[in-house]
Design goal:
The protein is α+β, with helices and mostly antiparallel strands. The protein has a single domain, classed as Beta Barrel (OB fold (Dihydrolipoamide Acetyltransferase, E2P)). It is 17% helix and 40% strand. The chain contains 1 helix and 5 strands. The protein has a 5-stranded mixed β-barrel with strand order 1-2-3-5-4.
């Protein structure tokens, strides 16, 4: 491999890492109750979601922006996510498996 080729690969990898969106500090913590990849939604029990105006814990169904976001998730997984309110309901915009 030439030096310029290795440098190009390193640049592409570094930029792809930089483009991976990190969850905001106020991300919502929850437990996945049902993952429905076919319909691009997830049922979650979560604590208060101040960013959505929800002051109490609840269980509800969220759409996900892209069904691929649900790959690797299963019922019972702890998750952290961000969501927005849209005219059609709440949509998860970012999600990651918790620890």
């Amino acid at each position: 491999m030439t030096r310029s080729f290795r440098l190009a690969i390193a640049t592409v990898l570094a930029s792809s890492v930089a483009l991976t969106p990190a969850l905001a500090a106020d991300a919502i913590s929850g437990d996945g109750k049902k993952v429905d990849e076919a319909n691009a939604n997830i049922t979650q029990h979560h604590g208060p979601a101040k960013s959505l105006g929800m002051d109490e814990a609840m269980t509800m169904v969220y759409r996900v922006k892209d069904a691929a976001m649900l790959k690797g998730l299963k019922a019972g997984d702890k998750v952290k996510f961000e969501a927005i309110e849209e005219p059609s309901g709440y949509t998860v915009t970012k999600i990651e498996k918790g620890k």
